[in-house]
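Problem 12. The chain below contains 173 residues. Write out its predicted structure in token notation.
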Amino acid sequence: LLLLSLQSCTKDIDFNQIDDASIHTTYIVTLIHLNLKASNFLNELNQEITFTQDLIQASIQTETRSYLEKIEFTVLSNNTFDRDFTLNVIFYNEFNEPIYTLQPQIFIQENSSEITTIIEIPEEDIAIIYNTNYFGFTLVLSESTDGSVLSINEASTLQIQSFVKLFVNYKKI
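Solution.
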């Protein structure tokens, strides 16, 4: 009777289930953190600069190539200027040639409190991340609606933070 009760409480173990195992994880790569003032949009003669741009080196490793399922590009912005801004994000290869433009452009409305913009890179474009050596950021200052221009003494700020989330599923291939 004891032997029968021990057998009925156990179940066969299927060691083949390990083939179906997967580990889901998310990696976050911080790209930029800017706190821009009026002086950042003025030249040495205190004239408005309509756009500014910068490149940063990409740090996405190819080890995840077979496992990467999704990419989200996130921008947090806070604009106290009386002007709109447009942020364009362009991916560049090792020769500083543009290979991909994030769509849609990120519109930062005048006098806006914190706005979060999340753009998912389409699945068919995910592989482009492995050919990306630099992320380029171009910030365009819109013209004022009343003809006013920025002043060096203006207290307005534009804060921008961005990061990339890589969604990875490590599974047996």
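Discussion. The chain has a mean pLDDT of 86. Students who got a different answer should revisit the alignment rule from Section 12.3.
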